[in-house]
Design brief:
elongated; 10 strands; five-stranded mixed β-sheet; three-stranded antiparallel β-sheet; alpha+beta; 29 helices
Length: 561
């Protein structure tokens, strides 16, 4: 606690903030009073600052020493103990002396933790109820038999006991004071001497090793993100990763719109840096987007590639939105595909007009082939590295072609049983309908990102689930083929009605020809005698599959059995 006050202990910047609630602190204090083990502390020696750090909760940082030892595991425990024993923070912690005395008199030895649960209590400073607030003064604490734990650290116990004569009515105050003094000696003074086992890592321990050790010991905590780790590591070199991330988001708003994780951009930087580092050497190393490779990035490599990769991500997302139907973040089949696209986009940017058009057609085909071959379902990091290398070659008319394009395989029968839990395929089909010019069921206008947001447009059942249940149809209502992008008002109007019924209602408002056009825009059978209008679910699925397969063949350039 003295080291915390004097700035000799600090928190690495990648650590989460203090998040324990008072109940957590109460449980820890019970363990300490009972002399139980309460875990190990993990420290990292820092004679010279290697990563960004901050003070403990409640300290302004002005006392922080440059050589402060970093607490990798134990921040929550140390902060909660400090606040409880110094009377800081939003709660005040007390020992219920009346209850402790009663329990102690019934026990021949020290009380175990199971019997101390209700002995440690806390009061909220800003509680609305007066009963839940701390006592207003020492006399009131004594009358309520609440001993402040903050007295242990300040060593003002005797001062507190001296007030007893005034606070307690009757002549037995001396006996009570003697009993309290014994309880304090037996249970509370030892808190100050409580010992945590400490593991201290030497200063030379690599950052990646530090992080892995931290996560092993702190499994219940929030896993450290690579972004946080690099932000801490780059700081001594004068690189503010958080500021740079905010800057590129401001410069390219589509990154924020699509809720892009900064880690994807760091992976793209790693792809480019890895290739560049080993270019021209024997047995060129493949590009890698693995966590360990990203953590090896240097500040110089980051600064060299960051802005170009951020631009690439923004241009790639704009292309996917405008040309591939990914009108909203929800309909991006694989976020991981942004990694190779962001890293390779400069190859598109540097080409002349005609060549640029060819390159964009290749990017489009790569996207759709990857989606419908489900090439990113497993091993996304490795796939991203391989695709980056292959795309770089393909866009420059080299021999290598992305495997999703060269070996594309998709059979229509996959759709016969594909449910919405196959998220990438599901999103791919919805994006496919949007890229085909899907129109609003309510107004007939072409769907746009703005309209999707304004009209609460989402993928809903074409044959309502309740309708199929009530008619006894054995077909699975959760198939991808039974979904279309429908606005909230229309979906509420559909309810559990048969398709023939709600389509008739639509035709009364929009006309038969208009409704047919809307259905066709969603890759749905639109003719008046279709299975959709005849409420034949099985036949509808067969027809719609044919329409979706035809659209897949169009965007991939490959025939689909």
């Amino acid at each position: 606690m003295d080291d915390m006050k004097r700035g000799r202990l600090a928190i690495p910047d990648f650590q989460r903030s203090f998040v324990w609630d008072p109940a957590d602190t109460q449980k820890l204090l019970v363990s300490i009073v009972a002399r139980y083990p309460a875990g190990t502390l993990l420290f990292w020696e820092q004679k010279t600052p290697q990563i960004r750090r901050r003070s403990f909760e409640g300290f302004d940082g002005t006392q922080l020493k440059e050589s402060a030892t970093l607490v990798l595991d134990g921040q929550q425990r140390l902060t909660s103990i400090f606040q409880a024993l110094t009377g800081t923070g939003p709660q005040r912690f007390f020992v219920d002396l009346k209850l402790l005395g009663s329990l102690d008199s019934d026990s021949p030895g020290l009380l175990d933790a199971s019997r101390l649960d209700d002995v440690i209590v806390y009061r909220e400073i800003n509680a609305r109820s007066l009963r839940k607030r701390p006592p207003v003064n020492t006399a009131e604490e004594i009358r309520q038999s609440l001993f402040p734990l903050s007295l242990i650290e300040s060593d003002r116990i005797e001062e507190w006991l001296d007030v007893m004569e005034e606070a307690i009515d009757g002549e037995n105050w001396k006996a009570i004071r003697s009993e309290v003094r014994e309880l304090v000696r037996k249970y509370l003074r030892p808190i100050g001497n409580y010992r945590f086992p400490v593991v201290e890592l030497p200063e030379a321990t690599p950052l990646d090793a530090v992080c892995r050790i931290f996560e092993t010991l702190n499994r219940t905590g929030v896993k450290l993100s690579v972004f946080e780790l690099l932000a801490a590591r780059f700081w001594p070199a004068g690189v503010d990763l958080r500021r740079d991330w905010e800057r590129v988001q401001h410069k390219h708003p589509i990154l924020a719109t699509f809720e892009v994780d900064a880690y994807y951009l760091l992976q793209a930087v790693s792809l480019r840096a890895t290739v560049e580092k080993f270019k021209g050497t024997r047995g060129n190393k493949s590009a890698s987007a693995q966590r360990s490779d990203v953590l090896e990035l240097t500040p110089a490599e980051f600064e060299k590639h960051w802005d170009q990769v951020a631009l690439g991500a923004a241009r790639a997302l704009t292309f996917l939105r405008d040309e591939c139907g990914v009108l909203a973040p929800k309909w991006l089949p694989y976020s991981m595909m942004l990694v190779p696209l962001s890293a390779v986009w400069h190859e598109v940017e540097t080409k002349r007009s005609a060549q640029s058009g060819v390159a964009l057609q290749k990017i489009r085909r790569f996207f759709w082939c990857s989606v419908f071959s489900r090439n990113y379902d497993q091993g996304g990091n490795s796939q991203a590295g391989k695709d980056f290398m292959d795309l770089t070659s393909w866009l420059n008319d080299g021999e290598r072609i992305p495997e999703a394009v060269e070996g594309f395989t998709f059979t229509g029968e996959v759709l016969d049983s594909a449910r919405t839990n196959l998220q990438a395929l599901y999103k791919g089909v919805m994006a496919l309908t949007l890229s085909s010019g899907a129109r609003d069921f309510h107004s007939g206008s072409t769907l746009t990102p703005e309209k999707i947001l304004e009209e609460s447009i989402d993928a809903h059942h074409i044959f309502p689930k309740k309708y199929l249940e009530e008619t006894g149809d054995p077909g699975n209502p959760e198939l991808i083929l039974n979904r279309a992008l429908i606005d909230k008002r229309t979906n509420q109007s559909i309810g559990k009605r048969a398709p023939s019924e709600y389509l008739s209602t639509m035709e009364e408002a929009l006309g038969e020809e208009e409704v047919s056009g809307i259905l066709q825009s969603h890759l749905l059978p639109g003719d008046h005698n279709s299975q959709l209008r005849n409420d034949n679910y099985a036949a509808f699925l067969f027809t719609r599959k044919a329409l979706v397969v035809k659209a897949i063949e169009s965007v991939t350039g490959e025939s689909t059995p």
